[in-house]
């Protein structure tokens, strides 16, 4: 009986991508797998047919030969080259299902150490200007006694005889042949027969480390600095993890940060707002003069350019926005009260001194008139 076209076997177009071919093979093989179809000869034949099709179409050279010359040349090329074994194909396609690891990333060897996160509390001034700080972290570090090997000084780990140092063993499950982590050495490829007395064969011990961290200018809450290789040491000589320093800028008594800008409230007296004046306001780089024009209303914003925050990822500098708040005088003397009463009488009957109040009262009157209609 003539063989079916390999593309038809997997149900894909001739121009299908490698990923589409792999997905189609997975779907077809699962459908016709003998374990799912016991004593079904037809399903077994379709399963083998799908395996053969995938073996050819998953190899670029074999696929090119098949596309040009058909079955005969493709099969000859596969036989001459040795081809990909049945278990190799399934290790690639179904490895994620059974936990097998195909490729160098799944090979054995000492495990990598854990990453660490350190929560650093920063004053706003330090976050804006940047500084170098020293932090102390509890961590697992390389054992000095065995230099991280886990073996007693004078001895050394031996190669695992179960996996021959690879860290993985091949297990057969019916028609499947998959790789999995070696249960004897737990993927390390080596065994400690004479463990170190200082770390009990782990290669790491509990320590406290002091590190110097340079904080760049402009960091904000939520920013992280990654220190590669400053995390925990891996067991039995494994590579170190990383350390992440997480920024947490504490609340400031004067300034509120909004990205690159700073905000603050500046209290001014009633007389300053009315006749104008000049006052000193704080910035993170020192005091500056702020000119208050006459007839200033409460809530008015004054922008001091370049007095904000230098941004971490750009050269731009934000601004300082000062919002003036007019304070009502308290604890008035009798004389001061009488002066204010006389001042208030001098203003009565004239809307030009209080245009906003006049406009507001007009609006209130219109509102109530509409309600009574």
Task: Report on the architecture of this protein.
- The protein is α+β, with helices and mostly antiparallel strands and 373 residues long.
- The protein has 4 domains: 6-84, DnaJ domain (Helix Hairpins), CATH 1.10.287; 116-153 and 200-249, Sandwich (HSP40/DNAj peptide-binding domain), CATH 2.60.260.20; 256-327, Urease metallochaperone UreE, N-terminal domain (HSP40/DNAj peptide-binding domain, Sandwich), CATH 2.60.260.20; 334-372, no CATH class.
- Helix content is 31%, strand content 26%.
- It contains 11 helices and 15 strands.
- It has a 4-stranded mixed beta sheet. Strands 1-9-8 form a 3-stranded mixed beta sheet. Strands 2-7 form a two-stranded antiparallel sheet.
- Strand 10 and strand 11 (261-269) form a beta hairpin.
- Helix 4 packs antiparallel against helix 5 (71-81).
- It is elongated, with a radius of gyration of 38 Å.
- The N and C termini lie far apart (97 Å).
- Mean pLDDT is 80; it is low at 73-107.
Which structural category do the helix and sheet elements fall into?
alpha+beta
What characterizes the major β-sheet? 4 strands, mixed
Give the CA-CA distance, first to last residue. Answer: 97 Å
Please identify, by name, the CATH architecture of the largest domain. Sandwich
Query: What's the total number of strands?
Result: 15
CATH topology of the largest domain: HSP40/DNAj peptide-binding domain
Task: Assign the CATH class of the largest domain.
Answer: Mainly Beta
What fraction of the residues are assigned to beta strands by DSSP?
Answer: 25-35%
**Overall domain count:** 4
Share of helix, binned? 25-40%
So how many helices? 11
**Order of helix and strand elements from N to C terminus:** HHHHHHHEHEEEEEEEEEEHEEEEHH
Task: Give the strand line-up of the largest sheet.
Answer: 10-11-15-14
What Rg do the Cα atoms give? 38 Å
> CATH homologous superfamily of the largest domain?
Urease metallochaperone UreE, N-terminal domain
């Amino acid at each position: 009986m003539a063989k079916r076209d390999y593309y038809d076997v997997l149900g894909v177009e001739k121009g299908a991508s490698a990923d589409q071919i792999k997905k189609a093979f997975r779907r077809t093989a699962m459908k016709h797998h003998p374990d799912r179809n016991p004593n079904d000869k037809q399903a077994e034949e379709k399963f083998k047919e799908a395996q053969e099709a995938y073996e050819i179409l998953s190899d670029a050279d074999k696929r090119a030969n098949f596309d040009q010359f058909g079955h005969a040349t493709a099969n000859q090329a596969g036989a001459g080259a040795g081809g990909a074994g049945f278990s190799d194909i399934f290790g690639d396609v179904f490895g994620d299902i059974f936990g097998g690891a195909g490729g160098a990333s799944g090979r054995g060897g000492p495990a990598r150490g854990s990453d660490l996160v350190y929560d650093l509390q920063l004053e706003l001034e330090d976050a804006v200007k940047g500084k170098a700080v020293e932090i102390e972290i509890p961590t697992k570090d390389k054992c000095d006694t065995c230099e991280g090997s886990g073996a007693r000084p004078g001895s050394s780990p031996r190669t695992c005889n179960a996996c021959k140092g690879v860290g993985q063993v091949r297990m057969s499950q019916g028609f499947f042949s998959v790789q999995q982590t070696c249960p004897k050495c737990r993927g390390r490829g080596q065994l400690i027969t004479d463990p170190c007395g200082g770390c009990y064969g782990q290669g790491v011990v509990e320590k406290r480390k002091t590190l110097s961290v340079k904080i760049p200018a402009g960091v904000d809450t939520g920013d992280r600095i990654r220190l590669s290789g400053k995390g925990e040491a891996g067991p039995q000589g494994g590579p170190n993890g990383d350390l992440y320093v997480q920024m947490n800028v504490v609340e400031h008594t004067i300034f509120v940060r909004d990205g690159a800008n700073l905000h603050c409230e500046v209290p001014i007296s009633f007389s300053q707002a009315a006749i104008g004046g000049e006052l000193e306001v704080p910035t993170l780089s020192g005091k500056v003069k702020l000119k208050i024009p006459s007839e200033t209303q409460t809530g008015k914003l004054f922008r001091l350019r370049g007095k904000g925050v230098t941004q971490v990822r750009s050269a731009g500098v934000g601004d300082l926005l000062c919002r003036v708040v007019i304070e009502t005088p308290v604890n008035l003397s009798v004389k001061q009260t009488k002066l204010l009463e006389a001042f208030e009488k001098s203003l009565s009957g004239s809307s030009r001194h209080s245009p906003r109040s006049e406009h507001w009262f007009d609006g209130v009157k219109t509102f109530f008139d509409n309600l009574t209609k």
